[in-house]
Amino acid sequence: MAVANIFSGQMAALLRKEFLEAWRDRRALWMAICFSLLFPVLLAGSTIFFVKKHTEETTRLALLGGDSVPVLEQQLRGASLEVDVVAQGEPRALLADGYDLVLQVGEDFVEGYRNFRAPKLYLYVDSSSTSSGRAERHLQERLGSLQQLIVSQRLTARGVAPQLLAPWQLQVRDISTPSSRGALILAMVPGLLILTLFVASLATSVDTSAGERERLSLETLLLQPLPGWQLIVAKTLAVASMGWLGALLAIAALVTLMPLMPLAELGIQQATTVSGVITMGLLLLPLALLVAVVQILLALRSQSFKDAQTQLSILQLAPVTLLMVLDMSRVELGEPFWQLVPLVGQQQWLKGLLVGDTVSLPLVVAGSLVCLMLVGVSVAVGARALRRESLLGAV
């Protein structure tokens, strides 16, 4: 009965007015839609580019003077290393001609090699090229393996066991799972989804608070026989609907683009299901309400419409910065307490759902309740702020 009284009469009219104004603002609507679709497209494009660059790109090597050591050219040539033997030429000109690296064989290389000396090889690179670092590491690995093979052969030919130079053998065994590898690749997605809440609701929150104050329509609302908390609740629901729409669009776009992303080549299994998508949307709903009411309160405290835009633009960077710092500093967030903290809890839940990990339902419920409690406190603070006479004189 109490709920029916809240959403009846003047409150229902107020809700209708706030939702109509929010959804008729084409600028705010397009801003929410465009940003929501932008980051999934950028994430998919960057993942495809990363995989192609590291798995399909071939290193071009010019072996200058390599006609005297054909064995070197045969051993270096591979699927991802294209070797061209060049009789003569200038290394700088060869690098400018499209080669990633130039390996020059010294004039006394053959004689020094036969006499068991250490003849020199000269490697020319262009450090200003973005691909030179990867190409150099690739060649160094090939040369290192070849050098180790030759040393073993020389020791064996003289009756010396190669194991004398290698007292142990280190074998690296990767025990990571597709879920854990997926957590590294998709670690930025929860933060971007949370950022979407802020960006998608920013324009609406500023317009419904500082904007209405400058248009003097807020004064008309305050003259109506409505409690202040109902005004804040109606505006919060309208603003949160815009932010939540942006987050839902971002989730839908991300899941739609996942089949196009070469996750399998990175050893990642797509663990997101339809139920997982619905769950992610529901998890973000309490946070959308909290973000909306905080934005409204800050906009009401601002001096003008432009001041509110500036403050909220800075605010939207704070959560992403916080979550990035926690990820980069490798802070252990395994304690249940962290899942009760807004933003941090949603990040952990979203990350688990994206890679197929289990999420504790009691902790999700508790964390969502904490978020809703903060919404209630913020509504009470906003209702009290509406009673200040200085509110309308802030412009």
Descriptive labels:
D-Maltodextrin-Binding Protein, domain 2; transmembrane; 4 strands; 2 domains; mainly alpha; 395 residues; single chain; 4-stranded mixed sheet; 5% strand
Which radius of gyration do the C-alpha atoms yield?
31 Å
Order of helices and strands: HHHEHEHEHEHHHHHHHHHH
What share of the residues does DSSP label as strand, in percent?
5-15%
By DSSP (H or I, 4+ residues per run), the number of helices equals 16
Please bin the fraction of helical residues.
Answer: 55-70%
Main sheet specs: 4 strands, mixed
The total beta strand count reads: 4
Number of domains: 2
Oligomeric organization of the protein chains: single chain
How would you portray this structure in words?
The structure is a single chain. This protein is mainly alpha-helical and 395 residues long. The protein has 2 domains: 9-52 and 179-394, no CATH class; 58-160, D-Maltodextrin-Binding Protein, domain 2, CATH 3.40.190. It has helices at residues 2-6, 10-24, 26-55, 70-76, 91-96, 109-114, 132-157, 178-185, 188-214, 217-222, 228-257, 274-301, 305-315, 317-328, 344-355, 361-386, and strands at residues 59-64, 81-86, 101-105, 121-124. The protein has a 4-stranded mixed beta sheet. Helix 2 crosses helix 11, helix 8 crosses helix 15 (344-355) and helix 12 (274-301) packs parallel to helix 16. The two termini are 40 Å apart. The mean pLDDT is 78.
Secondary-structure blueprint:
Elements: H1 2-6, H2 10-24, H3 26-55, E1 59-64, H4 70-76, E2 81-86, H5 91-96, E3 101-105, H6 109-114, E4 121-124, H7 132-157, H8 178-185, H9 188-214, H10 217-222, H11 228-257, H12 274-301, H13 305-315, H14 317-328, H15 344-355, H16 361-386
Parallel strand pairs: 1-2, 1-3
Antiparallel strand pairs: 3-4
